[in-house]
Structures are given as C-alpha cells and as structure tokens.
Design a protein that fits this description.
Pfam families: Response_reg (PF00072), Trans_reg_C (PF00486). Residues 124-217 form the OmpR/PhoB-type domain. This protein has helices at residues 10-21, 33-42, 59-68, 84-92, 105-118, 152-163, 171-178, 189-201, and strands at 2-6, 26-30, 47-51, 74-79, 97-100, 127-129, 132-135, 140-143, 146-147, 208-210, 214-216. The protein is of the alpha/beta class. The protein folds into 2 domains: 2-118, Rossmann fold (3-Layer(aba) Sandwich); 127-216, Winged helix-like DNA-binding domain superfamily/Winged helix DNA-binding domain (Arc Repressor Mutant, subunit A, Orthogonal Bundle), CATH 1.10.10. The strands form 3 sheets. A 5-stranded parallel β-sheet has the order 2-1-3-4-5, sandwiched between helices.
Length: 217
C-alpha cells in the first residue's frame, strides 16, 4: 500500500510515517500543502493522511481538489479540532474518514488499512489465495499453515500480488505500490525481492513471471 502523510509537525509526521512503514506500507511525507499537491500529481497513492491545517496550500483545498479531480486516493483527515461541527465540515469536503488529535496510534493504523482496502476493489481484512494467508494488520503471512518469515518489503510485494486477484502486476506497479519515492526505477530491486519471496514461499511455485508484462500469483 502506498501512503502520503501530509503533516506540518515534522516530528509527528516522521513518527507516523515510520510507524506505517512497520506495517509494510510505502510511505512518503510532505510537510506542507504545496509539497503534498506536488506528490499527489506525480504518484498514485492509496491513502492520504492529511493534516487539515497545513501551511502553503491549506488541507481543505488539498482535500477538495483531490475529490473534484476524481482521484481514487482515500483521505484520512487529521486535525486538532475535535468538535462535531469540525468533523462534519471535514467530511463534507470529501474526506473518507476523520481523526482528531491527539489520536491513538493503533487506531490510526487500523483506519489507514481500512481505507486502503477500499481504494481499489473492496477486499477483506485477511487475504487468502492458493493456500496463502496474509494478515496486513498483524503483518503476518502463512502458506498452508506454515509461518512465512518475510521482510517488510517481501510482505508488501506479496500483498500487492494478492490484492491483484490473479491479474498480472507489472514491475512498475510493484515499485509504485511497495516502494516510496526514493526508489530507483532502473534498479533490479523488484527482481531481487521477487527471488527472495519465491524462495520463502517454497514449492510448488506460485508466482508466475509473465514475459514482458510482470508477475502473477
């Protein structure tokens, strides 16, 4: 899952980003509204964690423009204002969810994961396919009951493949969904992670390479 955290409190933004990465998410950070808009134009995010009171371009404007442009990115709005009227106003702008500060971190993660499941075709909290069980909330994966000791990147790649429901996923899409903006598109990162993942999944092989197109689970 690819997430953008737009928050001007740098320490909070970095803590939120690092925590989401521990749940195998690819996370970029913007410290003001202008930077958030620039990243949203370039990258296809599943979820935007958006502070409402951003400097530069206000969070309300970021939210409204994203919705009006028909983006599929789901929006979790954060704000220090916790009144009902403020929540109603935020949701009225098109935000999918609303979380007042201070917030419980576990709740934030759960809400981001829930929104991520809705960013494409709705999918269940625990994914199952071909004997593989993947639980994003616990960051755990099993094959035929055997626990898979996956790195966070291997877990993220497997999650993208499972959410594709048997369709081919290109290397470019994997880079977009499982790596952040610092990934080099000309590296062999996808191929290396895919090789390790295949080894850990074991036999019979379950990841197919579709020549010139990508990978399919």
């Amino acid at each position: 899952m690819r997430v953008l955290v737009a928050e001007d409190e740098r320490d909070l933004a970095d803590l939120v980003a690092e925590g989401l990465r521990r749940h195998a998410m690819a996370v970029d950070v913007a410290y003001d509204g202008t930077a958030a808009v620039e990243r949203l134009v370039v990258n296809d995010y599943d979820v935007l964690v958006l502070d409402r009171d951003l400097p530069g371009v206000h969070g309300d404007v970021v939210c409204r423009d994203l919705v009006e442009n028909g983006a599929r990115t789901r929006i979790l709005m954060l704000t220090a204002a916790a009144s009902v009227s403020e929540r109603v106003a935020g949701l009225g702008l098109g935000a999918d969810d609303y979380l007042p500060k201070p917030f419980d971190y576990g709740e934030l993660v759960a809400r981001v994961q829930a929104l991520g499941r809705r960013s494409h075709t709705p999918s269940p909290p625990v994914l199952r396919r071909g004997g593989i069980t993947l639980d994003p909330r616990r960051v755990q994966a099993f094959r035929d009951g055997r626990f898979l000791r996956l790195s966070l990147k291997e877990f993220a790649v497997l999650e993208v493949l499972m959410r594709a429901n048997g369709t081919v996923v290109s290397a470019e899409t994997l880079l977009e969904k499982a790596w952040d903006e610092h990934a080099d598109p000309f590296t062999t990162a996808v191929r290396v992670v895919m090789s390790r993942l295949r080894t850990k999944l074991g036999d019979p092989p379950c990841i197919e390479t579709v020549k010139g197109a990508g990978y399919r689970l």
